[in-house]
Amino acid sequence: MFDGAAMASLTPIKPGTWINRVSVSHGKVRVRDYAVKVRVPARVHLSVIDMRRFAPGRPGGGGVGYALGAYVEATVNASKEYAIEAGRRAVVEHIARIVAKAVGYNKGFEIRVGEHGINHMGLGSTSAVLSAVAYGVNHVLGNPLDIRDLRMLIGYNFVEEWDDAHVVPGFETGVGPAAAYYGGFFVIGDCLEIICRCELPGKEVHVFIPKDVAKNYGEDEVKLLLTKAREMDDWHAESKSHEIVMRLIPSMLKGDVKAMGECVWRLQNMGSKVAEIKHHECWEEIYEFMKHLRSHGAEIVGMSSVGPAITAVSKVGGLSEKIAHDFGIELSKYIKTHIDNHGVVWEKVVG
């Protein structure tokens, strides 16, 4: 049986409700007289380190992943009331109110969000929305919070959409906001702490989303992550930690992409990641396709989060959509992009 308390945490809440109060040492609020447009990258989440150490409303567990060149934009302006144009209005309102509460601001914002449109496919769309809005809100308030404070506020109050007026607590390791704000490739430890970061310039990323694979979120995701995935990490979390500390982090520090890829591949075959992949009916095809990508020059290959997005880092020109057609896997979407090594960018909105 899955954790009943964790399932109870899926009870919808109003936007702006504290899930976990976060103590921050903020500066003075100085409301800016202009709007700001913020752009953040999505993320690829290659592995949770220890699935036993997080749950909805309780961030942690650690993770390995990188910033992906697929973007969410948020335009934010201080206002007397809340006026939000977004596909996930309640999620946007939630993080705006959380950041405002943290610094003692009691008015509103005008917020408009444009998403990359690849939702609940393993690429962290919700995390990118939360990160973009939080950054924009903080900026128009005069940057009273630093980036670490924003990451903590997001992580400890992470939500997914429920309906137009409610949100529910979600799973968060910290990889998404770190990727959004800093760019690059990460190892995140427990409590959302950044353990190691490196840049991977001059690399393409290929995202293959198989056709007719169910999206994973809400209660289905909770049941998966709190049952089989946790059981698998009872046996494998220590082995994964050893792989990351003794092999992956040194490879990152040396810039050895091939060795990083070998570590990531071993993680795809260990613990909770196996449960995430085998959750899909076509799991054997997913594994075989990932092996096919590796045999054709892909350097870092893995399924992102609970999937179904399969991701491959390669040299420029090393892969194309044709490899999927040749293999025989049917896709609903293919994206060729890059690793974002910069993270968040912003600009003043004129007029």
Describe this structure in words.
- Helices cover 36% and strands 26% of the residues.
- By secondary structure, it is α+β, with helices and mostly antiparallel strands.
- The protein folds into 2 domains: 4-198 and 340-349, Ribosomal Protein S5, domain 2; 203-338, Alpha-Beta Plaits.
- It is globular, with a radius of gyration of 19 Å.
The quaternary state of the protein chains shown equals single chain
Separate helix tally: 11
Rounded mean pLDDT score: 93
Which runs of at least 5 residues are low in confidence (pLDDT < 50)?
1-8
Quick structural gist:
This protein is α+β, with helices and mostly antiparallel strands. The chain has helices at residues 4-8, 89-103, 125-140, 147-156, 175-182, 219-226, 228-254, 257-267, 272-278, 283-295, 322-327; strands at residues 35-48, 63-79, 83-85, 108-114, 159-163, 166-169, 185-188, 194-198, 203-210, 300-303, 310-315, 331-338, 345-349. Helix content is 36%, strand content 26%.
Keywords:
351 residues, Ribosomal Protein S5, domain 2, disordered N terminus, alpha+beta, 36% helix, Alpha-Beta Plaits
Helices and strands, with pairings:
Elements: H1 4-8, E1 35-48, E2 63-79, E3 83-85, H2 89-103, E4 108-114, H3 125-140, H4 147-156, E5 159-163, E6 166-169, H5 175-182, E7 185-188, E8 194-198, E9 203-210, H6 219-226, H7 228-254, H8 257-267, H9 272-278, H10 283-295, E10 300-303, E11 310-315, H11 322-327, E12 331-338, E13 345-349
Parallel strand pairs: 3-4
Antiparallel strand pairs: 1-2, 1-13, 2-4, 2-7, 5-6, 7-8, 9-11, 9-12, 10-11
Helix pairs in contact: 2-3, 3-4, 3-5, 6-7, 7-8, 7-9
